[in-house]
Amino acid sequence: MYWPKLEGPLFPGQQEGEKIYLVLRQHWFVFAARLTVWFLFVAVLIIGDILINRYAPLLLTSPYVEVINLLRSIYLMAITLGLLIMWVMYYLNVQIVTNERVVDITQTSLIHHTVSELHLNKLEDVTAEVKGVIPTFLDYGDVYIQTAGETNRFEFCKVPNPTAVEKLILDLYEQMPPEQKNKGD
Asked: 15: which residues sit within 8 A by CB, 6+ positions away?
């Protein structure tokens, strides 16, 4: 199978020679939980059709059927749009860990995103936190990165293997030459 070689940066501001160690998104269970709520809205559509067929067959005759079909189409478009927005928000919220820095790309809406970065030489502390039965069982949680810069704390919410992420970031910091640690650019 042929895989084309990717040319150029893989994220905004990527430096030449910068090696990507980790690309993080929220745990799949977080998306699955949101998808479950979305299926409840699909169930409303199906149950509505069943109830109309069983208890209000008069609504399936003209002129009511046209109004019902219009409302059903609008509702179907809205829940389809909701599914697409859920996927875009899940897919575009990403954290990238490289040998030089941590980049947090936060998609707050379809047309608004924020890119924050933290150079590893400004790292002060990294904390992994797993709270709850399901997160403990599925091994996902939050990673907090304390910095010496303007942004006091980076938060990676509900990411898989938070302790491994914490260890990787601390290991990358420890691999830096001592003269570069806790210094500005």
From this structure: 100
Across the chain, mean pLDDT equals: 88
Domain encompassing residue 37: 32-88
pLDDT at 17: 81
Same domain, 84 and 134: no
pLDDT, position 138: 96
Q: How many CB atoms lie within 10 A of CB 28?
A: 13
Residue type for position 12:
P
Domain membership of residue 81 (yes or no) is yes
Residues 25 and 165: beta-carbon distance below 8 Å: no
Residue 14, domain member (yes or no): no
Q: Over 50: is that where the pLDDT of 2 sits? A: no
Beta strand ranges found along 26-111 (DSSP E) = 94-98, 101-109
